[in-house]
Amino acid sequence: MNKEKILSIRDLSISFMTTAGEANAIRGVKLDLYKGETLAIVGESGSGKSVTVKAIMGILSGNGSVKEGTIDFTYERNGETVHQDLLKLTKKEMRRRINGKRIAMVFQDPMTSLNPTMTIGKQIMEGMRCHYKTPKKEAYEKAVSLLSLVGITEPEKRMKCYPHQLSGGMRQRVVIAIALSCDPEVLICDEPTTALDVTIQAKILELIKEIQDRTGISVIYITHDLGVVAKVADYVAVMYAGKIVEKGLAEEVFYDPRHPYTWGLLSAMPDLNTSDEALYTIPGSPYNLMGKGKGDAFADRNAFALNIDYRMEPPMFQVTDTHYAATWLLHENAPEVGMPDALKNRISRMRKEA
Amino acid sequence: MEDEKKPLLEVTELKQYFKVSRKYEVKAVDGVSFRIYPGETYGLVGESGSGKSTIGRSLIRLYKPTSGEVKFQGVTISGSLNREETKHLRTKMQMIFQDPMACLNPRKKVLDIVAQGLDIHGMYKTKEEREEKVYNILRMVGLSKEHASRYPHQFSGGQRQRIGIARALIMDPDLIIADEAISALDVSIQAQVVNLMKEIQAQTGSAILFIAHDLSMVKYISDRIGVLHLGHLVETGTTEEIFGNPIHPYTKSLLSAIPQPDPNGEKKRVALSYDCKEMGIDYNAATSHFIGGQHYVLGTKEEIEKWNKKV
Questions:
Q1: Residue among B191, B270, B274 minimizing CB distance to A268
Q2: Domain CATH for B232
């Protein structure tokens, strides 16, 4: 179990200045990413999952500022191992040394992340030419092989295509090819399949997994679709209101969830065996980041909230070596509260099938 | 039993073509037939570009259908309409749109947005009656009276979609077309809106045409399902028939691609691929075949036999 840590985020806090005041988007996030593994960050919109990875990439929007914390990135340069706090680098250094070269990102919408005035071949070669000064011919050959790697037929012909000539699924494949062009250590996928159909989504997810097996890169997924998470993730972190409320191995989070918010997320998604009764819902609407109230941010929406939830924020409780959850329900003095019955039934059914 | 019930909406061979240039025409919907009975939910699924939204928009006459017949409560609504027919269509069929941000007028208060239908059709006598009607509907969709005097931007996504639903409901429609009504919402909010739609259906007895690409939601809400691909309805039947015994390879590939919150099962599963060109399936040569119950599959005779054998 000697896994290499590639990224380690410690106590990251980020806030945004808005007209309505300061919004604390990230409040003390702690995360690790190991070599060759897949980490999935789940949560609803506004939970801060995208902001976390934008901080890693150094592309926070102008009104955002990092309050505290470190993002340690370990990589190899000319055979040496280098540790670097990404938050200490200037934007220019990030651009030259990290973005695209070491950490690449796939965005949600393939329509807007490609340049409509350049052929896709040129766009794939751009990164290599820029970062590694690869000769044109070599870059061309690599681009062709990347296109066939991501499953595009007749790659030579496609090199000359413009983005509008391709379908949505093809475009997302091209974006992945661009991200992989500089052999990055980390690939970040921000909702890579939300804009796509289920059939194409399944293909893209399988593709990323296949590439990961072949090249051994680490992947961070950001999504709100728990089905996607189940398909790809080794390790899952559930975020709510800028904090990680539960993290653990995929099996642990899906088969033995401990946080009421995770229960809610899992039950709100109907699976194909859900019968006709009403769907479980998480009451209320997402947390307002402006507020700086005392207590747990989820307390108002939590059917299992204890008295203490309104007064103090719960710390991370350890469930197993790898599984943590931030809820007072895990405290030794807490009353015995189990997950909703419907969810319990579903999990036991899934376990039986597995 | 089904023969006795009179269909609320009867679509026969609906075709919707769009002229792109003089020589080129897009066949968005190419000969689709289905029926919706009063009080039921019919789910339309398919990938993007399969024509599911186009069908919804043709039915409510945002487009003029190229050919085919649409009968709504016994009245043909696919041809040109006179005033009375238009009024009938505009009141009894309502639509809920995909993007709750884009479909509400940002310069109007919720009260006026919801009451717009009433205003146009003159469905109230006094101002008080108008307000009373709006308040009732808002209560029904889980919003309060105070919300009526606010503007759309003051609401969250889920609340905005509730306003969209309220606006559709105030006309007391017999058919609601929900075009990807929940795709733009968060998972936890999706469940709230779906529950709301089910509740409202139980209360008012209106039928819903539920257009979506999320199959697990469609399965949950629909009584019957139609699977669309490239403008053709490849398979239709009750929810049990489609999910329990899918015949058409496209339906199978769709079903195999639904992600499930089950890591162990999910990691083993590989989605089936489907390419009608490679498999030599020509929709234009195919006809609709009866399988049993309400289950119909599009295909030639040989194809159906082949697909059946594989099962």
A1: B191
A2: 3.40.50.300
